[in-house]
């Protein structure tokens, strides 16, 4: 299988970089082909703006979706966007490796969604969600946190990881990916607040790498996260009256 | 009072721009001082990277929080970061005006958190959450969506707005802001998917502007969104056994 690792950390030698290496080595050893897509090293510009579109449909008013659709159809998207789309078309599985910064993926990866997942090309009308463009592919997050795992208990200090990743998981599902459960490496202290002494911290890094290495070979046979889909919604996008989840407030 | 509007849309003439104008005019008419902070027009770079730090603590390994703390203490943060911090110190209320892109704020605004809310300067140790730096100030989101309101019903097609804004709300609370309920303008079609005919759409734009204008004068007397805080957590950041919310799974 083909695996794309989208890596979003400014320091290649960071623990995030180490987890990307673990994934690459482990998956290659299992016979897969792996490409590492280092957004920082490639200088990816995450800001969706008029300047990315050479000959605009409307030169006076910048409507991102209008320009995305037109430039996709003309084959005139920015080269880095075309390259990212080609990588996605090639991949069977996409792993996003990043630190949780301000309760979400780093800006360089947030803007990757805004620029790369182009309207008209990778989604439109009913070609979304479980009928989305990438519906035969899998995607997942491998994420590190500064705070320790205990603080992520329900209503705890650091909040709930299911909630922090829900927007990104939903964006991946929006374009059709089957989303696998995230790999979360807690308590990775990247130079700031320190919760533990150095030896406990070092040991934890190794435990996280080992846990990830052990999970990787089985990824392709894992069940994906369930979402509601086209058959669950009425024509207005509202959950059908008959759906069992309508009991919830 | 002093109000800062942080505006994150690439087109000044967009409906988002119109809502920013409504806020500015309405608040000025009520006697407040308002500054519009246009991230796109100012060319804000949302990517946190080594190049923003002139003389690094460690030139071989880039640890963002280490550099943020050191450069804050030395007064050598990038000029645009210093300017944003000054604006926040000046403001009594910060309104973030942006479109919901891929289930969150646009990358230019996501990276604003990463670069501007500097470790050591605006948070550290126990100076977070309800003991945070900005605990005497208010903040809120004014957000537009492409999908219509019905699709945002629980488990509906477009998901739940409480969930989409929860990461950003939590980030604001992390640095001490009292977070007001968001102003959500649904069904604003920025050049892409169209759900309604043109006349319904135009009417809806006006309704959204009117609703916002009517709410604005009372903002300073609104109650803020409740969060758990230092008195609710034990020393590990876990919700105390005695806390009433421990009944939840």
Automatic annotation (TrEMBL), chains A, B:
Residues covered by the Flavodoxin-like fold domain: 1-192
InterPro entries to which the protein is assigned, alphabetical: Flavodoxin_fold, Flavoprotein-like_sf, NAD(P)H_dehydrogenase_qn
GO molecular function annotation: NAD(P)H dehydrogenase (quinone) activity
Family: Belongs to the NAD(P)H dehydrogenase (quinone) family.
Signal peptide range in chain numbering: none
Protein's UniProt name: NADPH quinone oxidoreductase
Coiled-coil residues: none
Domain of life: Bacteria
GO CC term, one of those recorded: cytosol
Keyword DNA repair (UniProt): no
Keywords annotated in UniProt: Oxidoreductase
Pfam families linked: Flavodoxin_2 (PF02525)
Record lineage: Bacteria, Pseudomonadati, Pseudomonadota, Gammaproteobacteria, Pseudomonadales
């Amino acid at each position: 299988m083909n695996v794309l690792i989208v890596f979003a950390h400014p320091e290649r030698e960071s623990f995030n970089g180490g987890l990307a290496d673990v994934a690459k080595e482990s998956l290659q050893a299992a016979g897969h082909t792996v490409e590492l897509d280092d957004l920082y090293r490639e200088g990816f510009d995450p800001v969706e703006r008029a300047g990315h579109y050479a000959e605009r449909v409307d030169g006076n008013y910048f409507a991102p979706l209008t320009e995305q659709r037109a430039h996709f159809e003309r084959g005139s998207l920015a080269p880095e966007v075309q390259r990212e789309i080609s990588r996605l078309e090639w991949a069977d599985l996409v792993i996003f490796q990043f630190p949780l910064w301000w309760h979400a993926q780093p800006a360089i990866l947030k803007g990757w969604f805004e620029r790369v997942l182009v309207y008209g090309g990778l989604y439109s009308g009913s070609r979304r969600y479980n009928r989305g463009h990438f519906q035969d592919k899998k995607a997942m997050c491998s994420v590190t946190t500064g705070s320790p795992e205990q603080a992520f208990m329900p209503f705890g200090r650091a909040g709930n990881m299911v909630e922090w990743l829900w927007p990104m998981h939903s964006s991946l599902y929006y374009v059709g990916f089957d989303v696998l459960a995230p790999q979360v490496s807690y308590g990775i202290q990247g130079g700031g607040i320190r919760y533990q002494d150095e030896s406990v911290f070092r040991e934890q890094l190794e435990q996280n790498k080992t846990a990830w290495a052990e999970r990787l070979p089985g990824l392709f046979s894992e069940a994906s996260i369930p979402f509601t889909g086209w058959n669950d919604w009425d024509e207005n996008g509202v959950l059908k009256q008959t759906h069992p989840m309508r009991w919830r407030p």
